[in-house]
Amino acid sequence: MTTKLPPGPTTPRFVQAIFALTQPSRGMHRMRERYGDSFMVNVPVFGHALVISDPAEIKQLFQTSTDIAENVEPNLGRILGPGSMFALKGEAHRAQRKLLVPPFHGRKLAAFEQIIEDETVREMRSWPEGRPFPVMPSTMRITLNAILRAVFGAEGAEFDELRDLLPEMVTVGSRIVLLPIPRGRMPRWTPWGRFRAMRRQYDAVINRLIDKAGDLDERNDVLAMMLQSRYDDGSAMTRGEIADQLLALLAAGHETTATTLAWVVERLRRHPKVLRPRARTSW
Ligand code: HEM
């Protein structure tokens, strides 16, 4: 069976890339107006790619078996590591999901509530009153600290080191994620060299966290649960897999949740009628 792909711009790949990088949103809308709900683009790294926007087609894609619609190539595994959720497909993805779902069950999540409340209340105490201020740096700190405690189970020196390291590591990683990855050693002043050095430091901290994990039954964090989990054949997750998965959870949960929280504040501020019944005067 042959499938006819929809049309799209025929301009060279690098021109489409410049367009996609400089006008990401407007460019997509313009192409939709011109070619309809679905069209082909030709961009670096991904090559020829099909863009769909009809809700029915999107629903169909989400409901398609992952044996047919696989993970995109290349994917975030280039930066987060081959053992991260974002790199895996097929049986390997299913096996990791089985291991990683239990820490996110409702009962387990309740154990994280106190951590999240503590971090939020502590940060909100620094909010000025009576004048506008940017809230996103604050929500970024809340979600980073909450993830380091609830997911990494970090405290003390490791908590401080990861809190300094990870935001910069994710920023540098997101800059190089769509660029070709050079082979061999790269100098420290290049983003790849810097990222590799930060990854070495990250792996060393995770090793320390695992070495001093202590009594796992006493702990509720995701790292402790990963250390206790076993695949169907009885084997444990390797240190590399654990480090990659923790980095994936941080990258997936930090900025996404911080942005959502910042929008909540923005919306509540614009709608005092909704805010007033929820407001408490003191913490
Ligand atoms: C408001 C906050 C969040 C939003 C909007 C969000 C959004 C998303 C989206 C759209 C995906 C699908 C990505 C894709 O398949 O290409 C995804 C996947 C994922 N998210 Fe989130 N996320 C949020 C918070 C979190 C948090 C807090 C965590 C964990 C601490 C997390 C962990 C993950 C993981 C592990 C995946 C990959 C799942 C898999 O491949 O099986 N996310 N998220």
Description:
With 283 residues, the protein is mainly alpha-helical. Helices cover 59% and strands 4% of the residues. The chain contains twelve helices and two strands. Strands 1-2 form a two-stranded antiparallel ribbon. The longest helix is centred in the last third of the chain and has 32 residues, at 239-270. It is globular, with a radius of gyration of 22 Å. The protein binds protoporphyrin IX containing FE. Protoporphyrin IX containing FE is lined by residues 85, 97, 151, 248-249, 252-253, 256-257, 260.
Short description, anyone?
The chain is mainly α.
Q: Strands, helices and their partners?
A:
Layout lengths: L12 H10 L1 H12 L2 E6 L3 E6 L2 H9 L13 H4 L9 H11 L5 H19 L11 H15 L5 H21 L14 H21 L10 H7 L10 H32 L1 H7 L5
Helix pairs in contact: 1-2, 6-7, 7-8, 7-11, 8-9
The site of protoporphyrin IX containing FE has 10 residues, from helix 11.
The string of secondary-structure elements, in order, is: HHEEHHHHHHHHHH
Distance between the termini: 65 Å
Mean pLDDT: 91
| Largest sheet report | 2 strands, antiparallel
In the CATH hierarchy, the architecture of the largest domain is Orthogonal Bundle
Spell out the CATH superfamily of the largest domain.
Answer: Cytochrome P450
CATH topology call of the largest domain:
Cytochrome p450
